[in-house]
Each structure stands twice: as structure tokens, then as C-alpha cells.
Amino acid sequence: MKALVYHGPGKRSWEEKPRPALKEPTDAIVKVARTTICGTDLHILKGDVATVTDGRILGHEGVGVVEETGPAVSSFKKGDRVLISCISSCGKCEPCKKGMYSHCANGGGWILGNTIDGTQAEHVRIPFADTSLYPVPKGVDEDALVMLSDILPTGFECGVQNGAVKPGDVVAIVGAGPVGLAALLTAQFYSPAELIMVDLDDNRLEVSRRFGATQTVSSKDGKAVERVLALTGGKGVDVAIEAVGVPATFDICQDVVAAGGHVANVGVHGKGVTLKLEKLWAHNVTITTRLVDTVTTPMLLRTVVAGRLQPRKLITHEFRLDEIMKAYDAFGNAAQEKALKVILRSA
Question: What is the C-alpha separation between 39 and 180, in angstroms, rounded?
Fold first, then answer.
């Protein structure tokens, strides 16, 4: 089969790889129908994720068709169309029983495209299939469903839920990429009074306004903090969501959060940040971190089926799966290409 393979920082190729086989009774083999590229994949290509080694097939999102199941799989059979979760979970260990699927103690968590081969391929092996796949409802836009593999639960769980967004809150989301926009869309479940989007890219700020941002702030000239504080009468925001993963954006969040507020980190950080504890120690501020657990995927799936959440509008570019090298070029040059999420479809 063909797959997108990582060969060290800055090196990727579309090449022939062996078709995956069942290894455990709980495995399924899925033929990938649709997949996408994540900002985390770009972090991997920068060398930010040390657990990803030379030869790894990337990707942790997708929709596909079950081709084969292990003898212990009871919820799926050959021919079923399924949503692939970015997090694999046994469902039985102590962390899984707490809803912390990302910390599965039996070899799950974020493993696809990380410590095992992922979904940017014609076929993928899914461990713990019963608890790591979701049935695709009939008639639902499968392109849109790919957004439920990772970015929508990530923005919602790591940003909106961890940030404890409440009705009437003033929320700043720093980073208007796909995950920041996912946080923007799902924050609206809670009717915040203001949704302020901060980004360098004017196109993404315009998209943010269409998606529900009440205010947008450019950070191109380094004056984002002053602008956010001016919009809040100097008080700062109730919730600051960091959705990029670089020191500059985390600093903005620290500088704009109000006393008693929340800083919810979502971004994947490849470099250390400075915690401004000399300022924050007396401000009753809560800072949270999280790797998505995907515990909200069933709820988000219901909102998509009901038409209350419309993830298709996050998709800006469409490619065949065998055009994935071109898709990476477009996604990696998002500002120039005006790219948010790309969708890749198999033949």
C-alpha cells in the first residue's frame, strides 16, 4: 500500500509500505476513505515530537471502512463505515475509567501516527477497535466527520471545557488555526458575551468573524495584549485559550487573563515557556493543560447529525490521497494558501 512516511525533521515521502495486519484480538484493519493533516503533523516534521521515529506513517484522523477484525471485536464487522478517533483507548484501565483515554495504561492514548503507524495511508491498523472507532451515521457528510477525529474534541475539551467557559464570559482565543477555530465554534455552546480571536493572519481573522468571533485582534505588530486589554476596559478576559504552541502565544494568554480567570493551553509546545508567576501568583488564575481524551466525541457527533455544529466549513482544500505531498505543501503554507483543513480522499 501507499503511505505518507516520516524520515526525520523536514523529511517526508509518499512511498510503498506493507499493508498492516492484525496483531491483537482487539484490532481492526480499516481501509482509509478520508483523512487530513493536523498541525501536530507539522510539529512532528519540525522535530518537536521525539516519540515519532524514522519510518513512521503519520496521521491520526480519518473515516474508513472496516476490512478485518480480530476475534475479540464485537461492535464492528467487515464493511462498517467508521470514524477513527485520534486517541486509542482500552476502556478498561484506571485512566480510561476516569475518562482519561489519552493516558490509557494498556498501550493506548495518542499512538496513531506517533508510536504506531497512522492514517495517512491506504490502510491502518486500529488497536482497541471497539472503543477507538465510532459508527458513521447514514447520510452524514463524511468529509465533515473527519473534523471529529481530533480538532473539534481537542478545541472543545482542552480549550472550552478546561477553560470553564460560562454564559456571559469574555473569551480570548489566541491562534485562529483549525484547533482555535474549533474552540471558537464549540465555545458558542455556552453563550459567552464576547469571543475575541487573536492571530497574525488577516484571512484567518476574517474567517473567525464569519464563524462567530465578536472581535478580532491582529498580533502582527506585537500589540495584541494592549488591544485585548483595551477591548475589556483593562480588566482582561475570563478565559484565555492558547491554540498555537509557541512561547509568544502563551505569553499573550498570561498577559490578558483577568483575576480569577482561566488559561487553557491547547497548543503542542516544542520549546519551553516562561511562567510569569511573579505576576500571576496572587491573581487566582487557573492554568490547565491537556491532551484530548475524545470523551466528548459521541456528543459532538450528535450535534453534527442534528445540524447544530457544521464542521465542513473548516475544510478549505480537497485532494486525492495520492496528492498528499501537495496537500502538505498547501497546509504548511497556510497563510499564503489560505488553508485551514485539507481533506484527502482515497480513490
Answer: 11
Work out the percent of the chain whose per-residue pLDDT is above 70: 100
Helix axes 247-256, 224-231, angle to 10 degrees: 30
**The predicted structure's pLDDT at residue 143:** 95
Give 153-288's CATH code, choosing from 2.40.10.10, 3.40.50.720, 2.40.240.10, 3.90.550.10: 3.40.50.720
- Looking at CATH, the fold of the domain delimited by 2-150+293-345 is given as Quinone Oxidoreductase; Chain A, domain 1 (3.90.180)
With CA atoms as reference, report the closest residue to 108 among 60, 178, 164, 42: 60
List the chain domain ranges: 2-150+293-345, 153-288
- What's residue 108's pLDDT? 98
Question: Stretch 41-58: mean pLDDT, rounded?
Answer: 94
Contact indicator for 12, 4 with CB cutoff of 8 Å: yes
**Mean pLDDT, to the nearest integer, of 317-343?**
96
